[in-house]
Design brief:
mainly alpha
Length: about 90
């Protein structure tokens, strides 16, 4: 009877130790999954921002092309928005 009780106690202790090791492994894996999910979410946010910028550029290019074709307008970078008094006198 004592042998059976001793074997059962050892078996319970072994199961508890094994269970504890599995819980530690699972928690480590869950932490890694959490970190990877955060990385994936950040990458998705960055990708959506890049897509938005790209779509805005495409819209501007199509608008520029349409204005050039229909109304013969062109985009220039030679506009002076501000001028000094010396420049206006000359």
């Amino acid at each position: 009877m004592k042998k059976i009780l001793g074997v059962i106690i050892l078996l319970v202790i072994a199961i508890m130790i094994f269970h504890n090791k599995l819980l530690i492994k699972i928690s480590i894996i869950e932490r890694e999954i959490y970190v990877e999910k955060r990385y994936a979410e950040d990458a998705e946010k960055e990708l959506s921002m890049i897509k938005m910028k790209y779509e805005q550029k495409i819209d501007l290019k199509s608008f520029e092309k349409e204005m050039n074709e229909k109304k013969k307008m062109e985009i220039t970078t030679d506009i002076n928005y501000f001028s000094t008094e010396k420049e206006t006198e000359e």
